[in-house]
Amino acid sequence: MDTARDLTRYRKHWASRFGTAPFLPMSRAEMDALGWDSCDIIVVTGDAYVDHPSFGMAIVGRLLESQGFRVGIIAQPDWQSADPFRELGKPNLFFGITAGNMDSMVNRYTSDRRIRSDDAYTPGGEGGRRPDRSVIVYAQRAREAFPGVPIVIGGIEASLRRIAHFDYWSEKVRRSILLDAKADLLVYGNGERQIVDIAHRLAAGEAIGDITDLRGTAFLRRAVPEGWVEVDSTHLDAPGPLNPPVDPYAMDDNGGTRASTAAKTADAAAGAAPAETSAETVVKFVRRVKSVDRSRSVIRLPAYEQVVDDPVMYAHASRILHLEANPGNARALVQRHGLSEVWLNPPPIPLTTAEMDHVYELPYQRRPHPAYGDAEIPAYKMIRFSISIQRGCFGGCSFCSITEHEGRIIQSRSERSVLREIETVRDTVPGFTGVISDLGGPTANMYRLACKSREIESACRKPSCVFPGICPNLNTDHAPLIELYRKARALPGIKKVLIASGVRYDLAIESPEYVKELAQHHVGGYLKIAPEAISEGPLSKMMKPGIGTYDRFKELFDRYSKEAGKQQYLIPYFIAAHPGTTDEDMLELALWLKKNGFRADQVQAFLPSPMATATAMYHSGKNPLRRVTRTSEEVAIPRGLKVRRLHKAFLRYHDANNWPLLREALRRMGRADLIGPGKQHLVPPWQPAGTGTLAEGARARGDVRKHGGASATPGGRAARPFRTQHTRPPRGKS
Fold first, then answer.
1. Which helix (H) or strand (E) holds 227?
2. CA distance between the termini of the chain
3. pTM reported for the whole predicted model
């Protein structure tokens, strides 16, 4: 893997003489108080400004400040005009645009495309304070306010739209967000390395259009530069004797001419124009690019014009993108959009432990900007006493954006740094009662876990280290995490350290000592866990372990809880209507829930987020976890509101409003034997007054209050035992 410049080794910009701002300014008056005549960089965000390391604008802003730059924040601006974007004046270097910690479309719409009434990242939880597709709108307004100022977009919304992507809300493939936002540069993934380098290079006088060599960035160019080796992956196997099978994922210098000829023949047969290129060498379907050429090789994805009309090509492009995700071996990617080429450099090099410590120990105030007064920001309330100890996830779940955004290489902080931050929370955060609400990250228990061999890690192209089973090269030693837990709860003034991040239970059972530590000291009665499904069909498409792994974890958890004299419960999470799920799979899950005494308070239907592997399944009906061809594996797709509603009804089989729908489905499936009054039945044959279809219609119109304790919390999927009236706590950091 390439080396990267240490974040702390840059020479500070001259404006470092102004020192550290108490809060990054949001107004001209604050700039005047700091003695600033201008900002070097202005960050525009769809979230309220909270100066806390769980908020992206705070991390980026404080990191740039530590480099000597003057950073202003424009938070949740009124996008109806460009005036709010002129509030802080013209930035000397660039605008940094982000939708915030959440994708603006996921933030605003449910999986059934209904508008949410609230927004956890807004004062008072008020909804509607950010536009749909915020990055595009903010970038356009910033350009209108100050033409000629470079626009750099980033964050989760931009990161997941860096190439042509399926958009669930419009049910069509949209082009790269770079074109719609008319941005100069897109930063994808965790952006610390990229944003610091961009700032210093622009400050040194380099033009934004000349920054084309930076990992973790995407930009537009007219053609592939001369001297690059272009690996064409746009061909799919086509039937017929003139088109011998060619593996689009195989790359070798043997038989390059024959493969090239086959590709051209297939293009001609399909009536497609060959991709334009100015590369000196075009290598099509070769197995290996020589080592000397790898750093100058680029893989051509199917063009936007191809994937927009051809779902199979879309699935193929998705597979290639995910295969080229390891910073140790990924190559550049290019995708034509009309006359422009969207160029993606390889992913950024993960931060070292020392760099992680530096980023998380910057001088955050750890509270919202004073401009919000006493208004409560729900997302801040959720995370104000939590500590991030790691980044990344090697689980590779096909429906999840974490691996695509943060990568699968775990970046961990040092034990000393984490303990120092706990002391900072204890000593400085108002309202602290001695309880740390979470020590975690994307997952609770991947701290310091990594491949046993750097060489193997750098060469690996697997999307997951734990599916279909745990890789033998993966170190699963939980000892460093156990030691961190023990030292954290031993600190003076710390009464309790809870774990709110999701526990990866297939890893946890590799360390019974960890499960014991967790159950006996770090659970407040309930622990969330995410089997997501129990049937092989959906599990294989989710890349999740079988339910037997959950059973083994539950056995350990129950045993150690009992040893400690504690009555504690697991809260399982499930997804309805995920690709690969049939009505029979959901029925099996409903019967499992009833047998085990669970009633789902909140359920979630699968939401196809841009660029996820499961989204490619949803759109194409193909399985990109394997080689994609016209005749490759078909995936069952629960599509349409009626099917999605039925799958959610199976999860809430106990809700009388769902019984008419379930009775109809059970009869259609030939399982009328499950309709009856007994314990062996799923639903009764009778209907309580005031429930059923009419009540469901009223709920859809908003005419009645939520029924049976169902929560409107966005994204909630918890289930609870029959015997408790527990209301699920917040799910931790977003």
1. none
2. 30
3. 0.88
